[in-house]
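Morning!

As promised:
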Amino acid sequence: MRLSRLLPCLAAAPAVWAQNIEFNRDVRPVLSDRCFTCHGPDPGNRKTALRFDTEAGAAPSIVPGDPERSKLYQRIASTNRALRMPPASMGHDALKPGEIRIIRDWIQQGARWQAHWSLIPPKRPDARNIDELIHARLTRSGLEPSPEAPRHVLIRRLSLDLTGLPPTPAEVDAFVSDRAPEAYERVVDRLLASPRHAERMAIRWLEAARYADTNGYQSDGVRTMWPWRDWVIRAFQNNLPFDRFTIEQLAGDLLPGATLDQRIATAFHRNHRTSAEGGIVDEEFRVEYVADRAETTATVWLGLTMGCARCHDHKYDPVTQRDFYRMFAFFNNVPEKGFVYNFGNEPPFIAAPDAHQAAKLKELDDNAGAAGSAWDSRQQAVRKAQAKWEKGLRPGPSVDWRPQEGLLLREELEDPSFDGKRSISFGDEKAKFNHRDPLTLTVRVNARSPKGAILTRAEDYWEGTGYGIYLVEGKIRFHFVYRWTDLGMRVETRDPLPLNAWHDVTVTYDGSMLAAGTRIYVDGKEWPLKVLFDQHVWPINQKAPLRIGAGGGLGFDGQVSEAGIYNRALSPDEVRALTVRRTLNEIARTSPASRSAADTAKLRLAFVDAHLPADLAGLRRQARDAQAARDKFHASLPTVMVMEERRDPRPSYILKRGAYDAPGEPVQAGVPSALPQLPSDARADRLALARWVVSRENPLTARVAVNRYWQMLFGAGLVRTVEDFGSQGDWPVHQDVLDWLATEFMDSGWNVRHILKTIVMSRTYRQSSKVAPELLQRDPENRLLARAPRLRLPAEMIRDQALAVSGLLVGTVGGPPVRPYQPPGLWQELTGGGGYKADDGEGLYRRSLYTYWRRTIAPPSMITFDSPTRENCIVRETRTNTPLQALNLMNDVTYVEAARKLAERILRAGGDPGQGFRFVLGRDPSPAERDAFATALSAFRGRYQTDAKGAEALISQGASKPDPRWNASELAAYTAAASLLLNLDETVTKE
Amino acid sequence: MSPFNLTRRCFLALGPLLGAKTHEPMPGFPTFKPRAKRVIYLFQSGGPSQMDLFDYKPKMKDVAGSELPDSIRRGQRLTGMSATQSSFPCVPTKFKFTRHGQSGAELSELLPNIASIADDLTFIKSMHTQAINHDPAVTFFQTGAQIAGRPSIGSWLVYGLGADTDNLPGFVVMISPGQGGGGQPLYDRLWGSGFLPTRFQGVKFRSVGDPVLYLNNPPGFSSENRRTYLDALGAINRAKLDEYGDPEIATRIAQYEMAFRMQTSVPELTDLSQEPASTFALYGEDARKPGTYAANCLLARRLAERGVRFIQLFHRDWDHHGGLPKGLPARCNETDRASAALVTDLKRRGLLEDTLVIWGGEFGRTVYCQGRLTATDYGRDHHPRCFTIWMAGGGIKPGVTYGSTDDYSYNVAEDPVDVHDLHATILHCLGVDHTRLTFKYQGRHFRLTDVHGRVIKPLLA
């Protein structure tokens, strides 16, 4: 702690600490905060060779035991402004007297240096449990632990901490009356095994993982990541060891024989925000995503603020800019774009069926496979039948065929001539394709001029909206444009189309939103393409009619004799068949050897399409139907964005000043140089990184993880800066406890439940949270842990508790996000677009973990109660206390409805006010509380008895119906009183 | 400052909370004598076109339709929306400019009311930013960084200076859509508190539903009931305070009482029925319609009177990529009169002296046409390299035009002002040394201006 920097109210804190100066606890923070900027790890900023982040660097300025002769002390203590450090001339303040005293005493005591504590691997302190360590510390400070909290307080504390929900009155009674020595442990075990526990653990992880249901940034389109959220819940439910939990999320896709679940786990690093704002520079944002992954990984697992080294070497910690970009390089190899799809998941993504859907998919896969094989196995019969059919065709009447399936338009032009001015329109209704619609456009054309519009549905200027086949410098172009400059797709053939000759030109597009899904055929042969623009990701509102000979501001000079349009991408064989103008009979009369491939294709397609014998036709239909059923189901499955590696690795560079367009020296993936390195034989990829993160040699990961668990239970970590274990971070008063737990965690096989149980079984955890004035003064922040913390509940717990005690909570686990109540108009006033529509059934009453999270307009009551916004990784818990929270809890329909349901519950139990206290707090009221409650209840009752309309209005809030058993005024009075219970300080607090 | 210094207990210890101000200032703030006590920031979201409103370039008529010279563009990056454009024809403004007032400020015919108070205003024609797209650009103006996550300027100021009100939030935000259909979306984080505690975040005053979220009692729940309710709640909570000694309970009791006061003070604030006819003669009849820019300007004055520290309006739909000759006059029509009225009104009431008013968007627009250029129609893309904002009141020298641009309004010619400089200058007007308003997060002492920013002294009165 930088004691001297504290406000007066904390000045009492040092009284409880030891007098001996310890470098890491006392000195390093002062040096780091006041000196490192210019005399620290960043050489770019170092003014002289003198540096205080290393022992050797500082040595010239220190004479151990003699502060007066030490330059360091002389300069910081100097009263001469010109000499004093940090320099007044640069606007720096002098060190505070307390800081100067620390440095002086430290030098006096021999200036013993210590490496930064968190970079030294934790050693198991010699103690049987954490209580021994904490009590020893308390004894040194002349303090005693608080007594154990009463049982009803303990079980409520435990239930909220481990499951996020309060205990039921029955659970409280059972525990209070269970005098067996293992009663407490039994409760702990029961709670840890509950699915509620998994949900409670998941929400903090979601915040760290910046999980949300939309992309963020300006356009904030939807995404589907909840299959990953459900993976997290399952992982906690199965108590997946933290090392596997880590490896699967960072690199599950790289594990040998990766399972679907392991690939879903990697969605962790696709949860960051993504931008679909028109006009952004793609690479600028892609770099931002990669940097987010590096920073998030460092924060969540290593407790390092690596983001500080993005633009320059870290000013405080031994993390260089090079280290940052080596970390960056691990995550820089995803086949991804900076500008993302705004209406769903952006590649790479995978289908993420749940167990039930996976079973159904397998069944459909099997069906399709079987039906396909049945059809395949009869191909000899098909060939025979075709030969017979062909024989019959030779003498027969003229029969022809062309693909009919999906045919939207077919025109044979009586007058095929276009002079640059003439055009034919087919109106506004036909072929209104959107960006995800597959299509085929086919024309027979004879061009005189190398520039023109052949078949289009495009506005009448070159950069207008629409699609079309054009000639530009003789080359065939296909455009599908929403906004010329940034949204759409444009391709052209490598070679020009020979002029003054007839050709069949066919364009197919598979609806994949990619230029790679487009093909251009000339006379049945696929031509190589050049991609001119490839960002076909926005829905198109077609404004122009379908025309031949006009569009894009061009006319057409030449002839067009035929045109066809399909709402699917024809296969190459079908396109080939289209070019054959001979009838089936004419082909049949030729010898098979003399037929072209196109002839053969046409005969074959025609036969299977229209002339198969009934039994074979049935088999073919079955095969196609089974495949279609499988494809349809597969397309309906939820997907989740996942990590993948590009085949050709993308090079990484140190980006100067962090700028995407200022690459400097190239770097290879690697871990920070101040930490143990990757094994020399390991390929430096994400999997190696993940294994390194949870290796025994890593001094940080286990500490950082158990510190977060501590925060979850005590409201603050043993290291309070849970996101920063560096030298600017908080020094742990109880480093021995942290190290005991960290080693226990690793020794237990990274067993999360074991660590949680170890902590909650401790006497420290079980203390009362009552605080005597003297203790409050001596240790206001409870750093020494002479009592349990008393903390306002997190946002989601406040709502979940209200739903639970009122009986409204719907306990379904997992699934798509839900939309509970939200004040009307919140979305429109910011975005103008469509509004928020609340669910009308169970979705109103699910745990807050499942609430639809729109990043730019997050659920207001969650934000009011200090939820992180999910914009980026947040691991620190914060609590504020504001009037807006009071308004929220008193007036939000969520809590008014819950109050009414709670009122009904109390009335059903006989109407005694004590019942309300038991339902909500698990205890009986004191006589004074009972009085205050009863007085208010009777005042409400009096008023509602003469205000029938008011009573009716109050009890009608919310989607659930009031219980008609109670008359309106009575129910309204109880509703008002029950709302009071939901607003009590104790109710929103864990004691 | 360390976040630990802001823990609940210290917050309490800083002053008796019952009946105290919403927000107390940090010790040592303001760092010197302020000229302005509060800010009204009229944010024009989307990027108003400087050369059609403020930055007149008569020579453009001579080069109308010709390509933007490379000597002017200098290979600078363009947005993805015009980077692939094949030609960059210059478009002169189609609006008339005349000089106004003693200061002779040159203004477009679209801003007659603002023109009429030109001598009260200071125009900065040399604003520039780094961002070329809305989200990063607005985020930059709001937080001093393009990537979201830092506290907004209003949050910083309430954190540092507190607010002089005991029944309203210290930082209030109001939004009006352009009548053209909305415009670019906004996001709650633009007035968020970032890593500062959430109590410093801007509170959005709304024109539909409750003016402040959850302000009103539920239907059928009278104010009389609320008093009874709070008395009982307070009694039970006080008993708990006696038993547990947790000062947080006292804070909670106080916040419920504050909530109760807000239930009176906010409706009283938004009730315009007592405003005389002369008010509406000044602001225009639009000011009677909740949710309009004019109504928000009037509310801004009422909030300023009540001691709110930072009042920010957002008017949307200035993003004229196309159809500028129609869209821009419409936006001006919605905002010109009320913006001028607000300054005039503040001046008449003696409030302009210590209220800093700022008008501006997140970037300017290009001299070259985006999309189709016709005889009557043009559009302009985002332009970060120069644009105009104006300021008035507390601490700012009136009747000044600062900075200039080249003949194409493409590059700053003299006296550039970047976003950090603007922030430093705003803080200076409020008596805050921008290098001293810091908050320690992730091991770093963050500040609004990061490691940049200089106070633009010539702007100061």
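Chain A touches chain B through 123 residues (CB under 8 Å).

Hope this helps with the figure draft.
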